[in-house]
Write a structure and sequence with these properties.
Layout lengths: L2 H10 L11 E3 L1 H11 L1 H21 L5 E11 L2 H10 L10 H5 L4 E15 L1 H68 L5 H36 L7 E3 L13 H11 L1 H22 L4 E14 L2 E13 L7 H67 L5 H36 L3
């Protein structure tokens, strides 16, 4: 079997580590979509977002009336209890005012049912709490979006590692076949008396070394597949047939200021820093509200009786005003703390914006470098293959030694693996730039 035929057969079987019937076809966009629906961090972030939404509902409860219903039974001869119970039951008589009856009353029962209603009328703290809860919900959403953006890069990197490992395995397999062909050629030349056993022994060692590299490459591919499955939230033993030539996302050439402006507008980490600053502002409003009066309306209706089925009703309504006069300087300290937190969050937002601009510039530079390396890699593979062909022809003609043949074979294997690595690097750097810009 010729070198070219062996290469074509290996290329046809590329990316197939197990029977195709046991694998699932998977493209890079599909892998990212699976990760965004099944990854553990995504599911945890979704739960956190639902938690934050429930906290908004809790905070809004401060706008609604509080209603308490109680049912109680008491029995005793404590003078105040007896007198107040008889009065609430509207059963107080002149005989109950006798000194002996007041001091030594007989034990009685009191069945009491009551409904109490309180409606807040003025409470700035409740309004600030609702605002803070809403910001917390938006922060949870931004956090989930940040995980989505990071997953796009993580999945692309893991997907690319599988491709690189598969390319290394394929290249190692091709190198084994080439080494065996070279070993056969050296054996034929030795039998013809053109070379010595030294050439054959060197090629025997070379075959063993390439076989070892093939085994290691197969192991690396299995590990890379397991890592990809873990990122996607799939069982670790899942097997997929990957698209060997995933196309990087199309990025239109745009001026740097426009890209930086897009990043500041779209990046979830910048949004998160802005929301944290707003949350600090809500905390400052809540701290100031502690010094303002709270006004609430109250109402109650109750039934009292000596027996369950015989009771007298009564009601009461009113308004209560609460004013914070002095709480041991705790409220003043809380207000000062909130002011400092607001200052700190503003600085952190500016830091996040600066970091976003820097990330865009770094991602652009790295993508340009990756594209240039890919072009060099394609040329390097073509040159290495042509060089190996020339060296084999020269060795077969007795014009060069076996060491040159071994170096040429090693150069081809390294160039092929490096070419796939540069292609994957373009994918990863494209995803990194999209993340830096805040694109999904």
């Amino acid at each position: 079997m010729t070198r070219r035929l062996a290469t074509l057969i290996l290329l046809a079987g590329l990316w197939v580590a197990v029977p195709a019937s046991a694998q699932t076809r998977l493209t890079l966009p599909e892998a990212i979509a699976r990760a965004r629906s099944q990854n553990f961090d995504v599911r945890s972030a979704a739960a956190a977002e639902r938690e934050a939404a429930e906290r908004v509902t809790q905070a809004r409860a401060g706008y609604f009336p509080k209603v308490d219903v109680t049912e109680s039974w008491q029995r005793g001869n404590q003078p105040v209890f007896v007198f107040s119970s008889l009065l609430a039951q509207r059963r107080l008589t002149e005989a109950d005012f006798a000194l002996d009856a007041l001091n030594h009353p007989a034990a009685i029962d009191n069945f009491r049912a009551a409904i109490m209603v309180e409606q807040s009328l003025v409470d700035r703290a409740a309004r600030a709490n609702v605002r803070a809860a809403g910001i917390g919900r938006d922060m949870a959403t931004a956090g989930r979006t940040l995980i989505d953006h990071n997953l796009a890069v993580d999945v692309t990197d893991a997907y690319g590692r599988v491709l690189v490992a598969a390319a290394a395995r394929q290249s190692a397999a091709a190198a084994v076949e080439a080494a065996r062909a070279d070993r056969e050629l050296a054996g034929n030349r030795r039998d013809a008396g053109l070379v010595t056993d030294a050439d054959v022994l060197q090629l025997d060692v070379h075959v063993a070394r390439t076989r070892q590299q093939q085994i290691r490459a197969e192991s690396d591919e299995r590990i890379a597949c397991a890592r990809l499955s873990q990122v996607m939230g799939e069982p670790l033993d899942s097997m997929f047939t990957l698209d060997p030539t995933p196309a990087p996302g199309a990025l239109e050439p745009t001026a740097l200021p426009s890209l930086e402006a897009e990043a500041l507008k779209s990046r979830p980490d910048v949004t998160l820093a802005t929301l944290q600053e707003q949350l600090a502002g809500a905390a400052l409003t809540a701290a100031r509200a502690a010094f303002l009066p709270q006004v609430a309306a109250q109402g109650g209706w109750e039934l009292n009786g000596g027996q369950w089925g015989t009771r007298a009703s009564s009601w009461v309504v009113g308004t209560v005003v609460r004013l914070n006069v002095f709480h041991g300087f705790a409220d003043q300290a809380r207000l000062a703390e909130a002011r400092q937190q607001t200052t700190r969050r503003a600085l952190e937002r500016e830091k996040a914006e600066t970091a976003a601009r820097l990330d865009v510039r770094i991602a652009l530079a790295q993508l340009d470098a990756a594209r240039a390396s890919e072009a060099v890699g394609r040329a390097a593979v073509a040159q290495a293959r042509e060089s190996q062909r020339i060296v084999r022809d020269r060795y077969e003609g007795g014009l060069t030694d076996v060491a040159s043949l071994l170096r040429a074979a090693e150069a081809v294997m390294q160039a092929e693996t490096q070419q796939m690595a540069t292609q994957v690097d373009v994918l990863v750097q494209t995803a990194a730039l999209e993340r830096a810009l805040g694109r999904r």
